[in-house]
Amino acid sequence: MSMEHTYKGAAEPQRHRTLPETVKKCEPVIHPTQHNVVESTEVIITPEVFPVHTTYVKNRVNKRVLSSPHTESVKEKVHDETVVEGAENGKDQRRGLFDRWF
């Protein structure tokens, strides 16, 4: 069946034609940002050292006890005198004043 189209004053049958496709680009629609949070945890071990030192001090006192023991002694002083009579020049001759110590 062939359809012929004639345009002679009568109502034409409707035809469907496909036109070339046109592409129109619009501005983008920007929606609010969806915020995602991803957490990760890292455990860090920090050694803390609190040293303690004890020093034991041993005190020693050297106590000096001073004493002065007293001693006594006795001296006897003897004085001898020798007199020679009739000595020269009429004077007595004497020997030393302290001849002996005991």
Task: Give structural notes.
- This protein is mostly loops and about 100 residues long.
- About 0% of the residues lie in helices and about 5% in strands.
- The chain contains no helices and 2 strands.
- Strands 1-2 form a two-stranded antiparallel ribbon.
- It is rod-shaped, with a radius of gyration of 75 Å.
- The mean pLDDT is about 80.
Task: Sum up the structure in keywords.
single chain; 102 residues; two-stranded antiparallel ribbon
Count the E strands: 2
Assembly category:
single chain
State Rg. 75 Å
Main-sheet strand order equals 1-2
Name the helix and strand elements from N-terminus to C-terminus, one letter apiece: EE
Contiguous uncertain segments of 5+ residues = none
Strand coverage percent: under 5%
Helix-strand layout with pairing:
Layout: E1 77-78, E2 100-101
Antiparallel strand pairs: 1-2
Give a brief outline of the structure.
The protein has 102 residues and is mostly loops. 0% of the residues lie in helices and 4% in strands.
